[in-house]
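Entry for the shared binder. Reason: the reviewer on the internal report wants the predicted structure included alongside the sequence.
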Amino acid sequence: MRPSINPHVLNLKASATLAFNQRVMQLRTSGEEVYHFGFGQSPFPVPRAIQAALIEHADKNSYLPTRGLPELCEAIAVFYDEQCGCSLSPDQVVVGPGSKELIFQVLYLLQGPLLIPAPSWVSYGPQATLRGKEIVTIETRRKLGYRLQADELHQACRGSVDSQKILIFNNPNNPSGSSHSEQEIKDLAAVCRTHQIIVISDEIYGLVNFRKEKHTSIAHHYPEGTIITGGLSKAFSAGGYRLGVMIIPPELENILQALESMISETFSAVSAPIQYAALAAYRYSDEVREGVERCTDIHCFTAEYLHQRFIDMDLNCPKPEGGFYLFPDFDHFREPLLARGIVTSRQLTEALLTEARVAMLPGSDFYLPDSHLGVRVASVDYDGEHVLHEFPGASAMDEKQLTTLFPNLVHGCDRLNGFLANL
């Protein structure tokens, strides 16, 4: 018997990041040396206070309210008020098994096309495809750090006949590491208000911010139309806990009601012990905050190190301002790559993996044309627990410490440099 399958699912591939990570893990398991710049998982241990809260509440076995543990929803509202300057109520908060699932559920229930700045995270498009939703990509400019601009958004809206549009806005951005300025966000908010765009603001990297000021949410300037998403996976180094949050404004209350109904018929509620553990994260004690800030300092250091190495190799690469990522391109090497039959980012990353043993993701996975020779680089291939204890601070680092603490980043760059030198 051959079952009939939903046509929207038939051509869907496994998540590019997860599938590629499995491939690299298999190579490493077989004894191959691979420098893994392809997967963006925080390398640091979960903060001890969060681990302790999980252990303490391991006996909690009751179903929690659909929207989430009330104390947790209150802590999340206070957290976003303090960190982003957004005045929120606990009634606006929804807790789910990762922000990825919550984004999918909202995309499923909303009508209208999805506007995706390119480059953007790999899963937004496939999620929209599962719903049969139209996808409108908005290609951004390298010279502006791949930050979506108000004029680009306005032009995309003028070209769409649908009255309701959804913008997915990831800031800081995966894959570019870009972070929008306050003025850029204000300008985008004005366009969103003009066109009545519903914004899903993916702020999962909001605390992993290399700017000296606090992260700015577009919800601060466009509160009535912005849905915020976040979670434990990045700043709190707890991706495996699978807890995400969504904050929906009162003006979009019908979305909140519909989402609650969907949750009740799908995952019901997030694991109770995990929600109690999340309380220790979102209450953001001095201990947790200091840990997050130290991890962010290390992310900033590794991003700046890789950026300088890439610039020294004559790669184009905007300087990252947050997250775990950089987005260099090999445009200056287009002719020697063409001589070897390499004309797409996928061919390029395959050659880098097989010849240099450096794993990166192709820009085409992030909604850019195949001919764009950009690649996504993750800056987290090191022993996070060891680095967390031994990192002396950026100003005190020397070459010996660099190689000791971040050997795969150093040697991976060396291998990449050798690949380019042999073109």
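Summary line for the report: Residues 70 and 368 are 41 Å apart (CA to CA).
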